[in-house]
Amino acid sequence: MTSSRVLRTVVVVLVLVAATACATRVSRVLNDPSRYRNREVTVTGTVVDSFSVMNRGVYRIEDRTGSLWVVSDRGVPRLGARATVTGTVREGFNAGTLAARLPAGVASGIVLVEQKHSVRD
Hints:
This protein has helices at 3-22, 26-31, 33-36, and strands at 40-53, 56-63, 66-72, 82-90, 111-120. The protein is α+β, with helices and mostly antiparallel strands.
């Protein structure tokens, strides 16, 4: 292997490790929600469900460890998109009068209230 090829490989590995280190696995949030309550976290995964309700949206993001509902006052990513979401973990999320219209698991439970998201195909 040439030295430039080794250097490229090392750089790619370091970038992947850094990207992974920034994101929290969904299972960590779900297994110990009190640790993350009212704290900002970043998760990365695939959008597997999404709904829009009265200029707000909810979507479910899934990584290989689990899935988590995200509440957004912005647009929601399309189904199948790979998304990185930063937000605040809330336990016992209360959707108020909209609860009857939201998917199961959103009206109460653990959700990520989105501050921002980025999508890549």
